[in-house]
Amino acid sequence: MSTMSANGSSETAYGSEFGPSNNTGSRKEMSIVASGVSMTVGIFSNGLALFILLKSYNRIQIKSKASFLLFASSLVVTDLLGHLINGSLVILVYGFHKEWETFDPHGITCSAFGACMVFFGLSPLFLGSAMAVERCIGVTRPIFHSTALASYHMKRLLALTWLLAALVAVLPVLLWRPYKVQSSRSWCFFHMEGPKDWLDVLLPLVFSVLGLMALMLSIVCNAMTSCALLRARLRRKHHCRGTSYHIEMICQLLGIMLVSCVCWGPLLIRVIMLSTRAKDEPASFSLLMVVRMATWNQILDPWVYILLRKAILRKMFTLLHDCCGPKSRFAQRWQRSVLRSSLETSNSGFGPTDCRLLGRLPETAIKSVA
Question: Positions of the region Disordered (predicted)?
């Protein structure tokens, strides 16, 4: 990472790519405050979402939703740790005036920073795609899901997603292609500027291609799941069991997918463009902007679970029913579906026949219970 010359000067990976930092004190304070505020908001959002998910996980009695909540809780925990670790490293860098040669002469902090950026970037994408696949199987192949996908299979899949993200993160260190401090001197990433060999091109491509594949898998699986639920509703073949929480999970998955595409899509595409470009043009500003967009993924993800819960969705559908008038039956069907799921998971002993009878209850009775 660094070599010492005879006169005691150090030649590191820092000095060859950019000159010394000339930030003013006011800019440094503003950067530290902005990083601290972003870190605080992210920790609060993820902590609140984790509390809601754990509360739902402890009282759930349906196996398929328990698997979904396991992945969702793991996603929120990953985002929370990402805010804590990456945010602390950013504050450390700004605290030392971005003088990497002073506090990190051997490049250890830079390597850890770059590995954390990659790991906490890929992990949410992999977890989101795993959640989409699990829900697609649960909706389209419910018997296979209940018999072949046990809880320990879900935990193994969860461990594999983290392991794959960690492997991609440490790959540059294992191949002796350490992460580089970028031109803005505020973060570390793959070697994106200057002369590069085939490994310097391959490593960021592996990162971007895997991220884009995870996004595409989420889009395909969520589309299949949504179409299956819509087709079942139109054909009136849906069972009373699980209708409401299926809709809740699909809404959350679509929200996660939308946030990931908006936040991570520009970064993944930009990294591919910079890695395969023909000319050696500066990449500092454009890359820094898309990285800042990607960091919002960890802030917006938890609000998907906070806002798209069954209680919130039911209120939204009720407001939609009030706005559309009495001819709209969608909110009433939603309330009836929530009632059926609640009665099925309770200890009242309703069977399938009782569940079918609930569809014939008067609307006033359904509204009073819901």
Answer: 1-22
